[in-house]
Amino acid sequence: MGTSAAFHETRVRVRYGEVDRMGVVHHRHYLSYFEQGRTEMLRDLGASYRDVEDSGTLLVVAETGVRFVRPAGYEDDLTIATRLTEARGVRVRFEYELRRDGVLLATGFTVLVSCDANGRPKRPPPELVALFRGLHRKDDGATDVQEAAT
Amino acid sequence: MGTSAAFHETRVRVRYGEVDRMGVVHHRHYLSYFEQGRTEMLRDLGASYRDVEDSGTLLVVAETGVRFVRPAGYEDDLTIATRLTEARGVRVRFEYELRRDGVLLATGFTVLVSCDANGRPKRPPPELVALFRGLHRKDDGATDVQEAAT
Amino acid sequence: MGTSAAFHETRVRVRYGEVDRMGVVHHRHYLSYFEQGRTEMLRDLGASYRDVEDSGTLLVVAETGVRFVRPAGYEDDLTIATRLTEARGVRVRFEYELRRDGVLLATGFTVLVSCDANGRPKRPPPELVALFRGLHRKDDGATDVQEAAT
Amino acid sequence: MGTSAAFHETRVRVRYGEVDRMGVVHHRHYLSYFEQGRTEMLRDLGASYRDVEDSGTLLVVAETGVRFVRPAGYEDDLTIATRLTEARGVRVRFEYELRRDGVLLATGFTVLVSCDANGRPKRPPPELVALFRGLHRKDDGATDVQEAAT
Questions:
Q1: Is there a contact between A75 and C49 if contact means CB atoms under 8 Å apart?
Q2: Which residues contact C12 (CB under 8 A, 6 or more apart)?
Q3: Cα distance between the two ends of chain A
């Protein structure tokens, strides 16, 4: 797991319907915030995940985890910091930090597996591999970027 | 709009994440409850909406409306009463009543349009037409069941 | 129903998890988009709905309706146009138009009732009444703004 | 972490709006399924989580993780197997296995922290401690059930 890869930041405003009866964001929505973080990161790099998927490559979530540090509330203006920390064969790992006014609210990660339209693992297209590798090379001394076949 | 068509009933338990910071079910979830009502009604009649869709007929929501009478809360055991009140060409109309212990919480309706996989209106397959007509014939004196072409 | 009240516009990007197996935004999410439209309108006018609620006034959804004209898809950049078309006693009515690149995708409305923390109707606080009236006065010749007691 | 604690099983039918454009259940909904698993387990033991919360004890999600093995689809009839594997001071850990027709689709866990209404950690009420301990004692030779103060 890289520790110095550059973070991409995007912002999200908590919606009314995302807050539960405790008055805080229900934990399932953090997965949507993270998803928004990684798709905005790709979009800012010129890659629409919609286009990736429509051209036959699905990035399927294989594993995820979240640690909740402090609650988020309605109308909070959150910053999602996203970075790619691993791109190896068919696997890509993203890590996230969620903050409000600089205060850490949660951390998390997602491991995605590149699949074909039938859900079978397959190498992502070259342009996506190049993009992932570019993201990851920002991480000094990273050793886990490989072109290992699946 | 028929008024005596038979209601089909299904039950749903309110989930934690469906309740908002007021402590009541967020209004968008009523649309999911209604959807569950009509798909359970079809399933009890032997028609899986999944199969309908997988065989190339989409029932697309064209219009919906809800009146909220009393709030629903966490863990409430709700009864969704669903009936088909119109089936005319490509259009089908369902109406709903949501209750807790017999007390009315909400009423609503959905108008669906039968479409092909590209979203263009097309007549539903004969078995679905027959099923809709059967549902509707339970409504004494109904006059709005027609075989009007689209 | 006023027809010339000024529209407030806000934008929303469709999230991955909001799109269903037809490949279009699931209809329940339009209610969240509309909610975002009216809260952003209030925020731009200096009123945080969070503060309104925290000070003891709940704006409870009493009725809603949506007409779906054209589908919205993943990553679509949508514009929510919101206007207040009625503010009468404890009732407030908002109307919405959802567009993508100027093309109308859906229209809808929400009727909200001002309630106290126990869910009983009560007049909204004066500053909110003033704000609603200001919004509505933009509607030439409106006649439905009244100070009718509940 | 215990490995032999008894699993409680509950069932959930996948709703239309939970399936994404890949045609599979969007990953955030697994967190709702797990939540349903643990609340149904408590309910079957005579403890309503609604009552727990209304009497001033919040069980706040502090950490969660999910491994997705095989996708779930629309209308799938899923079985959520839930067990309590740790109850120590203010912390409770639940583990989950999600299956369709006996085939494993996903595993996951949730760590919850007992808090007061202000979100500060506090010991759960005695009846809840007793219930958790009873659940856990089903795990032969468990050693991690303690009454350690917070």
A1: yes
A2: C33, C36, C78, C80
A3: 19
- Check residue D46 and report its DSSP letter: T
Give the chain C residue nearest D23 (alpha carbons): C21
B74 vs A: CB within 8 A: yes
- Read off the pLDDT of residues A79-111 as tens digits, 9 standing for 90 and up: 999 999 999 999 999 999 999 999 999 999 999
The answer to whether B119 faces chain C, any CB pair under 8 Å, is yes
Largest CA distance in chain B: 48
Chain C, nearest residue to B112 by Cα: C68
Question: What residues in A contact B32, CB-CB < 8 Å?
Answer: none
**Partners of A81 in the β-ladder:** A9, A97
Q: Residue B142: pLDDT above 50?
A: no
Question: CA neighbours within 13 Å on the CB side: how many for B90?
Answer: 17
Q: Look up residue A135 and give its two tokens.
A: 């993201």
Structural domains for chain C: 8-137 (3.10.129.10)
pLDDT tens-digit readout, A12-39 = 999 999 999 999 999 999 999 999 999 9
Cα–chain center distance at A58? 14
Q: What is the DSSP letter of D16?
A: G
Q: Is the pLDDT of residue C143 over 70?
A: no
Rounded Cα gap, residues C89 and C121, in angstroms: 10
Q: What is the pLDDT of residues D4-20, one digit of tens each?
A: 568 999 999 999 999 99
- Interface pTM, i.e. ipTM: 0.88
Nearest to D65 among A21, A29, A64 (CB): A64
Question: C75 at the A interface (CB within 8 A)?
Answer: yes
Q: Tell whether D50 lies on the interface with A, counting CB pairs under 8 A.
A: no
Distance from CA of D20 to the nearest CA of C (A): 4
Judge whether C71 is closer than 8 Å to chain B, CB to CB: yes
D99-109 in b/e burial notation, b at 16+ Cβ within 10 A? bbeeeebbbbb
The whole-angstrom separation of Cα B92 and Cα B114 is 8
d(CA A93, CA A86): 5
- The C-alpha atoms of residue C110 and residue C132 are separated, in whole angstroms, by 15
> pTM value?
0.90
Beta bridge partners of D64: A66, D110
Kind plus residue range of the DSSP H or E element containing C109 = strand C103-115
Amino acid identity of D39?
T
